[in-house]
Specification:
Structural class: alpha/beta
Number of strands: 6
Number of helices: 5
Strand content: 15-25%
Length: 129
């Protein structure tokens, strides 16, 4: 049994299968989940687990070379916008409809219980060397 890091077996296994260039959508409870990507649904109750909690845990385990979020996050959810800006200085912003379209190409979707709007980010995996 693992003693640290991500303990959820479904999520840990899905992360181990990711490669360079693969997309991972970390999303709030309301984001439409496209057909195609593998989904690990962590949502338990409204707000649990939070977008910030899940994102921080994933970033501790993944190498990220890019990130895309919805432009609307700036006005609708300043707390999530600040979190994303803190983690991704080169954050790319697109309209929410475009983010939903891009998410169809993700390899993995991790759904949180976040109940605030536009708490979504599509990250692109990098390599550690």
């Amino acid at each position: 049994m693992k003693k640290s890091g991500i303990l959820n077996r479904h999520l840990a296994g899905a992360l181990a299968e990711l490669g360079h260039g693969d997309g991972v959508l970390v999303c709030d409870a309301g984001m439409p989940i496209p057909d195609g990507p593998r989904v690990v649904d962590l949502a338990f109750r409204a707000g649990v687990p939070s977008f910030a909690e899940v994102l921080d845990g994933l970033l501790a385990e993944l190498v990220i070379e890019g990130a895309t979020a919805a432009t609307e996050v700036r006005d609708a959810n300043p707390q999530a916008a600040a979190l994303l800006d803190g983690h991704f200085p080169d954050l790319s912003l697109v309209p929410h409809e475009r983010l939903k379209a891009l998410s169809a190409g993700a390899r993995l979707v991790v759904r949180t219980g976040e109940a605030r709007p536009y708490a979504n980010v599509l990250v692109r995996c990098g390599v550690f060397f």
